[in-house]
Amino acid sequence: MVYLDNKLLLWINNLSGKFKLLDNIMELLASDYLVPVLFMLALISFWITGDNTSDRKKHQIGVLIALISMGLCNWAVYIINGIYFRPRPFETHEIYLLFYQPTDSSFPSNSAAFAFAIATTILLINKKFGITLYCIAVLYGTSRIFAGIHYPIDIIGSAFLSWVIVYTMFKLKPLMMPILNNVIRIAKIFCLA
User: Fold this and answer.
1) What is the Cα–Cα distance from 150 to 160, expressed in whole angstroms?
2) How many percent of the chain have pLDDT more than 90?
């Protein structure tokens, strides 16, 4: 598995440094800003849209579950990083680096966990919008491999972690509904829902 992970990393990263336009696009995608901001704007858009009151409430509950899932994913990554430290690819391989050198553990990818948690939640509520976010999340993960800051298994592990957490949140949704409904009710008082 490690051999395949390394081979795939080197194959993807080998495309770096050959085409300036591709490097610029991937550097922008891999950044800590573009995709996270897009995902937050997507959640805001999802919060305020819906064909009717029922759809809008379903979307708002989905946004709340996405935020909870995202927070739980970040917490899980923090715990895993405390137990297991994996050096970044640029520390163990001669690769072309398009990004600053993060010092935290490579596995699992916190940024990919964030993106996949949101994309998975939205996918379970709205297929069309969710598929779009999923494509962006996959592109985000791939760009971070391309940039030399993550191994493929870091991204896959983050996606799996996100799926497990989002699935668990949806299973617990009936128990959380009173709290979620109260959050939406309070948001309505402030004209936020």
Assistant:
1) 16
2) 76
Cβ atoms within 10 Å, residue 67: 16
Digit-coded pLDDT (tens) for 74-124:
999 999 999 999 999 989 888 888 888 888 898 999 999 999 999 999 999
Angle between helices 2-13 and 127-146 in degrees, nearest 10? 90
Say which amino acid occupies 6.
N
CA-CA distance, 103 to 183, in Å (whole number)?
Answer: 37
Q: What is the C-alpha separation between 83 and 132, in angstroms, rounded? A: 34
The answer to whether 102 and 88 are in contact (CB under 8 A) is: yes
Cis? peptide before 108, omega within 30° of 0: yes
Contact 152, 108 (CB under 8 A): no
